[in-house]
Amino acid sequence: MPTADKKKSSWRDKFRFAVFNDTTYEEVWRIRLSKSAAFLALSVAIFCIIGITTSLIAFTNLREFIPGYPDVTLRRTIIMNALMLDSLEHELEIRDKYFLDLNNVISGRQPIDRVAMRDSTRDYSNIVFQRSVEDSILRARVEHEEQYNVTQSAGGPERGTSLANIHFFPPVKGIVSGNFDPRTRHFATDIVTLSKAVVSSTLDGTVIMTGWTMETGFVIMIQHSNNIVSVYKHNARLLKEMGDRVWAGEAIAIVGDSGELYTSGPHLHFELWHNGEPLDPTQYIFF
Length: 287
Fold this sequence. Notes:
Layout: H1 2-12, E1 14-20, E2 27-34, H2 35-59, H3 72-106, H4 133-146, E3 175-178, E4 189-192, E5 198-200, E6 205-213, E7 217-224, E8 228-238, E9 245-246, E10 251-255, E11 267-274, E12 277-279
Antiparallel strand pairs: 1-2, 3-4, 4-11, 5-10, 6-7, 6-9, 7-8, 8-10, 8-11, 11-12
């Protein structure tokens, strides 16, 4: 017990720390502390030093002097590269979608965006269709009138139709700079014309695809009757959207030189397809 009391009393004992002038022996500074107070003061000082050092590293540019830590320029470069990579991935997705839509159109299928999704929230199994008396009378009168109509063939308007009997409206007027050449897989005719000239639809139809690619810029594709598809590329601006109904000679785009490949000035890249096969536009259109 006396030993334990002695240890406790030593922690409470006061100690004096003094600073004297070596010449005059005058006391300049002194402090009286016990062991417990000195330990507490030392602990507070250590925690303050740790806190100040952490704050300086976290909120100032001193952290850049730490070996292996990236500087401002390197971090800015990393962020810009990440943004450019994200943009590149987006452009690749647009390009892949464009080729998929083009393949579907050439194959006679509908583009992905044009496929009608069935509404699963409704039940159509209980719907019963009934023919009214007025509908039956109207059907009989129309069938009687059409029986002696010789303006249409019995096989329908599209059956047996020859492309030679179709009048194609020239999309633009200009000089042909690139001819149709299947050997080089250039399934189009390039027409050089004035910048910002109006691009017109060659036939009546419906816009089935609009978009932009890195290679061909702004592109618009139109589905016509008789399974004819026309494609217009390198436009400066598109005037129609997917699903719009257009007429022959109606403005659909503005001539430009958009796209990073296959263009060296304002011109129109015009393609014509029939039943999935490419056609030479100069055989049917005078530019």
